[in-house]
Design brief:
- With 289 residues, the chain is of the alpha+beta class.
- The protein is built from 7 helices and 17 strands.
- It has helices spanning 52-67, 90-93, 118-127, 166-173, 175-197, 249-257, 271-288, and strands spanning 14-17, 21-25, 29-34, 38-40, 43-45, 75-77, 97-101, 104-105, 108-115, 129-130, 133-134, 144-150, 153-154, 162-163, 201-213, 216-220, 229-233.
- The strands form 4 sheets. Strands 8, 9, 12, 13, 14, 15, 16 and 17 form an 8-stranded antiparallel beta sheet that branches.
- The longest helix has 23 residues, at 175-197.
- It is globular and about 60 Å long.
């Protein structure tokens, strides 16, 4: 079963429809529904991917539960049965919902990198720095960094987020809050990195979002999912190559192999690609929880 949208089965105002998540207003709280939609290169693709939404939601719920003792978060509950008449078909939304506190989002994407790869590697190749942080000379693609680094981005609701320096972030949100977000992000990364390592997985980098509730910083959105983290199977780790990450890599690889111009809605994904992605998401969940 796949879920492309929950609009027809949720009796609550839709506040926001993202590429994957839908946000509904329950009055005191928000309802987040995680669909099976998949995006790449800023386009939502067809068809939806079976099991993707419930994998993302279950993983986030797991990590929020694991860290809540020392990192306050926005989760109220994840039980669709408690929603009563708000949901017409509870079976369709089982494992796909999160009821959360209403936090005021801090418009910074908090990125932590433990390895130099992806966009961080492209910055380093060009300047020897990442988000203004000077790194040692001679690093190779996918090198493990001596210490993880915090490389924030300013969130843009339209287009790509913008990599910024810590100094720029301090200008935007204030020095005290910037330092608190950095410390919380590095602490979360270290916890999940060690957890993943015991399960044969490298957490190369990840991103977090935080919000304010009653003057306190809390963790919101999603954490340590394949959509918010770069996971590598330890057996695939190598320097100087594109490591096949445990996420929607089959989609990016397939689209890059076609003559799609990346400026228009692409054709529907072939079934074998959809199946490969679904298997990836299920595999990473089974290895982690």
């Amino acid at each position: 079963m796949t879920l492309s949208t929950a609009v027809e089965i949720v009796n609550a105002p839709l506040l926001y429809k993202g590429k994957v998540r839908e946000l509904y207003d329950l009055g005191e709280h928000y309802l987040i529904v995680v669909t099976d939609r998949i995006s790449a290169f800023d386009y939502v693709l067809e068809p939806a991917v079976p099991e993707k939404g419930n994998v993302l939601n279950r993983l986030s719920a797991f990590w929020f539960e694991q860290t809540k003792g020392w990192m306050e978060n926005h989760v109220v509950h994840t039980d669709v049965e408690l929603l009563g008449d708000v949901v017409k078909n509870k079976e369709q939304l089982k494992d796909r919902i999160m009821v959360t506190r209403k936090a005021e989002r801090i418009d910074i994407e908090c990125v932590v990198r433990g390895y130099i790869t992806g966009g961080g590697w492209r910055q380093y190749e060009a300047s020897g720095t990442v988000n203004g942080i000077q790194l040692p000379q001679g690093l190779r693609k996918n090198s493990k960094l001596e210490q993880p680094i915090f490389t924030p981005a300013a969130k843009n609701d339209v287009g790509h987020d913008e990599d910024i320096s810590m100094a720029k972030m301090e200008e935007m949100v204030g020095k005290e809050l910037a330092q608190e977000l950095e410390a919380k992000s590095l602490e979360l990364y270290a916890y999940a990195r060690d957890y993943c390592e015991k399960r044969g997985i490298i957490l190369a980098d990840c991103k977090f979002e935080f919000g304010m509730v009653d003057g306190k910083v809390i963790l919101i959105d999603e954490i340590f999912t394949p959509d918010a983290s770069r996971f590598w199977a330890k057996e695939n780790y190598a320097l100087d190559v594109e490591i096949d990450s445990m996420d929607k890599e089959p989609v990016r690889a397939y689209l890059s192999s076609t003559d799609w111009d990346k400026n228009s809605q692409p054709d529907p994904l072939p079934q074998h690609v959809v199946e490969a992605i679904s298997a990836r998401y299920t595999d990473i969940m089974n290895r982690l929880i």
